[in-house]
Structures are given as C-alpha cells and as structure tokens.
Write a structure and sequence with these properties.
Layout lengths: L12 H11 L22 E3 L2 H9 L6 E2 L2 H7 L10 E2 L8 H7 L3 E4 L7 H5 L4 E3 L9 H16 L2 H21 L8 E6 L4 E5 L4 H8 L13 E5 L10 E5 L7 H5 L9 H4 L3 E4 L7 H16 L8
Parallel strand pairs: 1-4, 2-3, 4-5, 6-9, 9-10
Antiparallel strand pairs: 6-7, 7-8
Helix pairs in contact: 1-4, 2-11, 6-7, 7-11, 8-11
C-alpha cells in the first residue's frame, strides 16, 4: 500500500485476499453497519474516487482515506491541498479494488462515470455517486446541489452551507474587482499540443464562473464543455482577452506555446490581452470554481494583476 510520503504499510497481497474472503458474507459489504450520517463524521473513513469529490470533501473538513493518483491531484487541483496521509488507490477510472478493500472505507464516493464498477465497489463499502460537475448552463448550480447532497449523506450539512456561501462570496468579489472588464469577451483555452487548444464554452465550469461574475465568454457557440481547435482559429477572436490555462500534464506548456511566431500575430498578444493561469480542474466543483475566480481576478485586476 503506497502512501504519498513514500512509506509502505506491511500488508501483503495474501493478507488482502484473506480480508476479502472473510469480509464478504452473502454480499454484505464490509463496514455495512457503520453507515455515515451519525456522529464523529470527521473521522469517517471515506474513499473518494474523483479529484473534484476529494477537493469537495477536504473543503468540507473531511479527509478521505484514499484518492486515485494524488500526485496528479496536487498538480491539477492544487487548492485545497490533499493531506499527506491520503493513500493512492490507483487510477481515476481503474481503482485498485484490493487496496480499497485493505483501507476498509465506510463509504466510497464516486461519480456516475464509475457506474460499471459499482457492483465491485459495493462489495467493499456502500457507494454514493452523484454529480458535482455536468457541462450545462447550470454547471455551478449542479456543483452546489451535488455538494449539499454529499454533505447531507455524511452528516456535515453545516459545512456545505458555508462552502456554498463562501463560493458565492468569491464570485461576488471577483465580479466587483472586474466590473470594468464586463464589456470585453474572454476566451478561455488550454493547450493540448503545439498546434491545438481546447476552447471552453459557456457550459464549462469556467464559463459558469464568467456568467456568475457578469463576464462574457468569447465563444457562445460551443455546445458541450469545450471544442478542440487549431491555433489558426484563435486569430478570429480579435476583440477577446485570452485566458490560457496551463497544462497539468506538461507544466509551462502554455508559456512555451506563446513563444511561437504564430502566437505573436494574434491581436490579443499584440495588444497585451494574453494572461496565462495555472491549471484549474474543470470538473472540480465549487473549490475549483473559487480558485479559478481568484486567479482570474488577480490576472485581470489592474490594481493587482497583469499578464502572467
């Protein structure tokens, strides 16, 4: 069992399999009696199989016992930081079932994307799956509803009310700081490779933040979360301010992309309307929405920001 600080627990494969055999009785999940929602929820053992869910739990004051690829969480989510005690339980869409069993969680929280794995997961612990992200015009409303539902399930409703309120307050603050930016459309993109970017539309988490803050997305035609386009298309957004989110896969990829000759021809570059932001998890729910709003305000606010 790998921990983030490099330590290893003395749990052998044989011991894990023995635990599996002894814990499964007529399909009754391990820890079935210890369901959440009662008392002492700060110590409730929860495995979070999604980075946005993990970030939401930490923001609610609950540290998950296991999260997929926490090193990538650190690079992509950033804030809130994940405690070093959290165990790496595999990959986002292929969790390690033996590790999860050994951790003995009382609840597994996942997204509906892991629906096919639900039967296996339910043999380990009860599974709670709800949306905190869906690319729709109501993307932030869905994040709020999902956060409140999760908090209700684990008995920390007061913390979720506070998280929703603080996120809305962050949006209000950003709207006030950027009130003078409302008339200029913002183009939100992230590099895929040296020739392509993802353009994020109004139904993305970033688009939802713009909407809450009274700002305008430069491309309102994108139906889903994003479109993949070649760099040459960016020249057509002559009036936009470009917000380029860095890649968590290749750090500083955004900065290297802007050094090319083609980039120097774009109007938003020539006029000083290009801002590079760190990577922000686009499916990260309320914590990611707040972080994006803060980064955006810092970059665009003439009193305290500029081209990064």
């Amino acid at each position: 069992m790998k921990y983030r600080n490099g330590q290893a627990a003395s749990i052998s494969r044989r011991a894990v399999l023995a635990g599996l055999a002894s814990s499964w009785i007529s399909g009754i999940p391990l820890k079935a009696a210890g369901l959440p929602g009662t008392s002492n929820n700060a110590t409730l053992r929860i495995a979070a199989l999604d980075w946005g869910i993990a970030a939401t739990l930490v923001s609610l004051g609950v540290t998950p016992v296991g999260v997929p690829a926490p090193a990538w969480y650190d690079r992509y989510v950033v804030d809130p930081s994940l405690p070093a005690s959290v165990v790496d339980v595999g990959l986002l869409f292929t969790p390690n079932f033996e590790l999860l069993q050994a951790l003995a969680p009382e609840l597994i929280v996942a997204t509906p994307l892991l629906q096919q794995a639900a039967p296996m997961l339910q043999r380990i612990a009860p599974v709670y799956a709800d949306l905190i992200f869906q690319p729709t015009p109501d993307v932030l409303d869905i994040a709020e509803k999902g956060t409140l539902g999760l908090a209700e399930r684990i008995g920390v409703r007061a913390a979720s009310d506070q998280l929703v309120a603080s996120t809305r307050s962050e949006m209000t603050t950003t709207a006030q700081r950027l009130a003078n930016q409302a008339t200029r459309p913002l183009l939100i993109a992230s590099p895929l490779d040296s020739r392509h970017v993802s353009l994020f539309g109004p139904n993305s988490l970033y688009g939802g933040v713009l909407r809450r803050c009274g700002l305008t997305n430069a491309d309102m035609t994108i139906q889903g979360e994003f479109n993949i386009v070649g760099l040459e298309k960016l020249g057509s957004y002559s009036d936009a301010t470009m917000i380029l989110l860095d890649s968590p896969v290749v750090p500083r990829m955004a900065a290297r992309m802007t050094e090319t000759r083609l980039w120097r021809t774009f109007p938003f570059v020539r006029d000083g309307r290009l801002h590079i932001l760190p990577a922000v998890l686009g499916s990260g729910g309320l914590p990611s929405a707040s972080r994006f709003a803060r980064l955006l305000a810092d970059a665009l606010d003439s009193k305290g920001g500029g081209t990064l």
